[in-house]
Amino acid sequence: MKIRYSALIFPLLLAAPQDALSWGDDGHKAIALIAQRCLTPEVKARVAAMLAADTDNLTKHDIASEATWADKYRDENNRQDHYQQTQNWHFTDIEIDHPDLSQACFGRQPLSPGTLASNGPAQACAVDKIEQFQVELAAANTDAEERLFALKFLLHFVGDLHQPLHSSDDHDRGGNAVKVIVDGFPHKSNDELHGFWDTQFVDAIATPPTALAQNLLVQITPEDAGSWAKGTPDDWAMETFTVSRADAYGTPPLSKDQVQHLDANYVDTAEVDVRLQLSRAGIRLAALLNKALGSRQADWNTCLKPSH
After folding, report:
1. Are residues 161 and 240 in contact, defined by beta-carbon separation less than 8 angstroms?
2. pLDDT at position 54, please?
């Protein structure tokens, strides 16, 4: 899809870069709430019990709060080792001018024998960490502490993978280096493309996360869910990349060389994409957890019936 935007003629405004939070807390919570709706009763009970036993105080221990844990863990005060170890795990930076998933995933080196996924190399991408943690969550011989790590990282990374600017890059730190002015939104000098996809475009749909999740759930059909649940994290990353290249970056790609103006047409397209990507992430998270922790998938017709 070709998007319309205009580059403003004044120079690029200088500001300190903002950290990329991937949907922000509200988006991650909404994804987890969608997933919770379509967990089988067996898996829902197992997830609730695992999270209730969590002693980490970075978040509350409901599924929505725990979906934000990986960001809190990465950015925990006085724990630079957490940041250095896990910062790359939140991204799959596929370059829009040369899409190469292997390159985006640092060559896709497997875990060394006996290495826990939570201790895995710092140079790893979201796709590979999802696959590694899914294996651990499903394995009967994974110890309880590592299985809890696996669950909490999966609650977050499946969401990360579906944020368009976490699965693409234009040599601009996933849009963090692209300054923007966006029609219909208050402007600050440090507004960045990535941040709008993380939070502003999400919150424009509905707040709080419970309302956002419900807003999205009523539009998901069983046919949608059955289709979205297919495929692999590799497939989902490339699908998200396609959305980002076409709509988040556009043709020609938004530039980091001067402030970009995103018009109402861009905003409308972004809302459609954000709705779709949050919904896909929630359904796929449910399918992944049902597979790892249970013996069957949810009945999409049942779990997607309107609640009263």
Report:
1. yes
2. 98
Q: What is the pLDDT of residues 27-53, one digit of tens each?
A: 999 999 999 999 999 999 999 999 999
Pairing mode of beta strands 5-7, 180-182: unpaired
Instruction: Please compute, for residue 256, the number of CA atoms within 13 A of its CA located in the half-sphere on the CB side.
Output: 15
The total number of residues written for the chain in this structure: 308
For the whole model, what pTM was predicted? Answer: 0.92
**Please, is 232 exposed, middle or buried when counting C-beta atoms within 10 Å of its C-beta (0-12, 13-18, 19+)?**
exposed
Our measurement of the distance from residue 95's CA atom to the centroid of its chain's CA atoms, rounded to an integer in Å, reads 18
Interacting residues of 214 by C-beta distance below 8 A, sequence separation 6+ = 206
pLDDT tens for residues 59-99? 999 999 999 999 999 999 889 999 999 999 999 999 999 99
Q: What is the CA radius of gyration of the chain?
A: 19
- Whether residue 252 has a cis bond before it, omega within 30° of 0: yes
**Nearest-CA neighbor of 94 among 24, 165, 198?**
165
Task: Specify the residue for token string 């590979």.
Answer: 128
Contacts of 79 (CB under 8 A, 6+ apart): none
Amino acid identity of 129?
Answer: K
Query: What crossing angle do the helices spanning 144-162 and 41-52 adopt, rounded to 10°?
Result: 110
One-letter identity of residue 221: T
10 Å CB burial of residue 242 (0-12, 13-18, 19+) is: middle
Pair of tokens at residue 27? 């988006």
